[in-house]
Specification:
By secondary structure, the protein is mainly α. The protein is built from 3 helices and 2 strands, in the order E-E-H-H-H.
Length: 136
């Protein structure tokens, strides 16, 4: 069944390079971000979900991660019934959702890559906070 699941791929904001030639209607009013759409936006969402699952379960094989993501995909009024109830050619198993860790699961530790990602995220949050304060 393809797609196996779906992820956000429309209206995703990304950093804008000074060297990019982007249609003006796609550029955010702040002039530093632009809106993207497509599989190039949804694939990183799924990759991030896989990374979080592997951080929690480092010994999990690809089939298990795939199964867990599909079993935890969300249905809503847009998707209608999805896998495993029916084969949905538009939504697959539904919208990307992360599996909840079982009560006895190991508590994920922050890996070096996770630490770098966290530092990057905190830097972005700090930059946004500074920018908001400057505007006030």
């Amino acid at each position: 069944m393809k797609p196996e699941l779906t992820a956000s791929g429309f209206g995703v904001m990304s950093a804008l390079s000074d060297d990019a030639s982007i249609d003006i209607e796609d550029i955010d009013p702040d002039g530093e971000h632009w809106m993207m759409a497509g599989t190039s936006c949804s694939a990183p969402m799924v990759a991030g979900a896989v990374a979080l699952c592997l951080d929690a379960y480092p010994d999990a094989d690809p089939g298990t991660i795939n199964y867990e993501l599909m079993m935890n995909a969300r249905e809503d009024e847009f998707t209608g019934d999805t896998w495993p109830d029916v084969e949905n050619q538009y939504w697959g198993a539904g919208k990307l959702g992360l599996p909840l860790l079982p009560a006895l699961a190991r508590v994920p530790t922050l890996t070096p890559i996770g630490l770098i990602a966290l530092i990057g995220l905190l830097s972005v949050i700090a930059a946004i906070s500074i920018r908001i304060r400057k505007r006030q």
